[in-house]
Amino acid sequence: MTHELLNGLSSAEVERVLALGTRLIVPSGTSLFQLGDPADRLFLTQRGRIRLTLPMQVRGREEDVFVEERSPGQTVGWSALIPPYRFTLTATASLHEAEVIALPREALCAYFAANPAVGHKIALNLAVVIGHRLQLFQTMWVREMQRAVEVRSA
């Protein structure tokens, strides 16, 4: 399987990075992490889907507002590599169980220090993943701004 975070690495480099991780099975409906939790691991989705939500108050009660769903080959929990190392969303296995590879931050950082070319490629891939999230939130924000303007104009 090709992982977006590992694009451009040789198959040997991919194997070495994946060997740093642990495979986890996440039962349907189970949280992988919650908003605000310490982000000490990054996750590569192997099987199933991971829903990313933002908990917020809606009409006086807490709701998990859907942000996006990540599928096999995609990255979840990149906050593990970005200070202050806290998860910014909640991640939950969708309708079916999911399988992820959990890569510990400390092991990844040590590997990047010993293999700077690999760290550089992964950092560039991570920038693409983060850029996607920023575009997603910008689109959501623009929609909300359009609604607010329409309400004021009516």
What report would you give on this structure?
This protein is an alpha+beta fold. The chain is built from three helices and eight strands; from the N terminus they run αββββββββαα. The chain has helices at 11-18, 105-114, 116-153; strands at residues 22-26, 31-33, 41-47, 50-58, 61-70, 75-76, 90-93, 98-104. The strands form two sheets. It has a four-stranded antiparallel β-sheet. A four-stranded antiparallel β-sheet has the order 2-7-4-5, with no helix packed on it. α2 crosses α3. The model has no long low-confidence stretch (mean pLDDT 93).
How would you sum up the major sheet? 4 strands, antiparallel
CATH class: Mainly Beta
Report helical residue fraction. 25-40%
CATH homolog superfamily: Jelly Rolls
The CATH architecture is Sandwich
| Total discrete domains | 1
| Termini separation | 51 Å
How confident is the prediction overall: mean pLDDT? 93
Can you give keywords for this protein?
154 residues, alpha+beta, Jelly Rolls, four-stranded antiparallel beta sheet, 3 helices
Quick description:
This protein is α+β, with helices and mostly antiparallel strands and 154 residues long. The protein has helices at residues 11-18, 105-114, 116-153; strands at 22-26, 31-33, 41-47, 50-58, 61-70, 75-76, 90-93, 98-104.
What is this structure's SSE topology?
Elements: H1 11-18, E1 22-26, E2 31-33, E3 41-47, E4 50-58, E5 61-70, E6 75-76, E7 90-93, E8 98-104, H2 105-114, H3 116-153
Antiparallel strand pairs: 1-8, 2-7, 3-6, 3-8, 4-5, 4-7
Helix pairs in contact: 2-3
